[in-house]
Amino acid sequence: MDAAKNKYSIIVPTYNERLNIALIVYLIFKHLRDVDFEIIVVDDGSPDGTREVLKQLQDLYGEDRILLRPRAKKLGLGTAYVHGLKHASGNFVVIMDADLSHHPKYLPSFIKKQMETGASIVTGTRYVTGGGVHGWNLMRKLTSRGANVLAQTLLWPCVSDLTGSFRLYKKSVLEDVISSCVSKGYVFQMEMIVRASRKGYHIEEVPITFVDRVFGSSKLGGSEIVEYLKGLIYLMITT
Amino acid sequence: MLFTSFYSPASHWTPELVFIANPVKHVLKLLSLLVVISALWIGLLQASIIPQSHTWLLPIYFIVSLGCYGLFMVGVGLMRFPTCPQEALLLQQDIAEAKDFLKQKGVDVGSN
Predict the structure, then answer these.
(1) All domains of chain A, ordered by start, with CATH?
(2) Could you tell me which InterPro entries the record lists for this protein (chain B) (predicted)?
């Protein structure tokens, strides 16, 4: 594939990330010089003025580089990707979080890995040497590790980080996989990568670091665990 | 070859081969593995190579070992969990740099 002809559409779903989205845009431009890309911001009707900031960013960087494609209200992550995909003009799509837990400095390593291996999907993994997590207490690490071991045993995925959402897809592959996924939340991320693996797509991993800045984001109550187990069973049965 | 291709995920296959691939649901793969292991166990019971009293207990041993293996993997993973405290610092630096630049260019970087 001729590197000069690749274009990367970076889809960032946002909700109340007025400051973070500006920082992310700056960092993407900083780390992706000499790369043809566009940033598609799918904002779910943030009341905090995100759209005003995005207009300022568009004035600074160009409306062809920053695409604002908002929606009326919070409609969920999966549909945000589908919505972003409709407006993506690149042949590759990157998905990443807007809260700066995913650092744009890893984007070149995703691109490099894809070009070296010709992979259909490059997914970031926090759980290998070279990657890592900051901001998790022991309990959080324990549940993450336990969940991972369970998922590895039950599903035999060929990736080390199933719930990660920092990924590079070939656009056609993302369109194909996303059309068959129905879950919500982080189970959705798991479903995407497991379905892609079952369909035989070539998946590679790169180490990433994940800085969790949302203090006390213990999304790990009893109901989350139940959701996770239900998600695992669903994936076992349907993939 | 057939056995491994039945059980191993097809991550090395090219997209061209994909569409011939893998219609078997994962739960069925696990169940068939269970059937094979059960058949071996029943075979051992019939053949009496090992004393019957031991053979009856084999499933318990198997489940307990599986549990121990799982706990061991969790423990090892927890000990070797990669952390990156320096990344938080680097991130703060990046944020400061970004804020400076954007403020100069007239982008509103007041906090949320």
Answers:
(1) 8-238 (3.90.550.10)
(2) DPM3 (IPR013174)
d(CA A31, CA A229): 38
Contact B9 A197 (CB under 8 A): yes
Task: Please indicate whether, in this complex, the C-beta atoms of B107 and A60 are within 8 angstroms of each other.
Answer: yes
Q: Cα–Cα distances in Å, from B64 out to A19, A60, A155?
A: 51, 62, 20
ipTM of the prediction: 0.85
Beta pairing partners, A10: A39, A94
Give the tens place of pLDDT for each residue, B29-55. 899 999 999 998 888 888 877 777 888
Chain A residues with beta carbon closer than 8 angstroms to that of B74: 142, 145-146, 149
Question: Is residue B16 less than 8 Å (CB to CB) from chain A?
Answer: no
Domain locations in chain B? 1-53, 57-107
**For residue range B59-106, what is the model confidence (pLDDT) as tens digits?**
899 999 999 999 999 999 999 999 998 999 999 999 999 999 999 988
Q: In which band, very low, low, confident or very high, does the pLDDT at B7 lie, cut at 50, 70 and 90?
A: low
Question: Could B112 and A16 be called an inter-chain contact, meaning their C-beta atoms sit closer than 8 Å?
Answer: yes
| Separation between Cα atoms, residue A75 and residue A28, nearest integer Å | 26
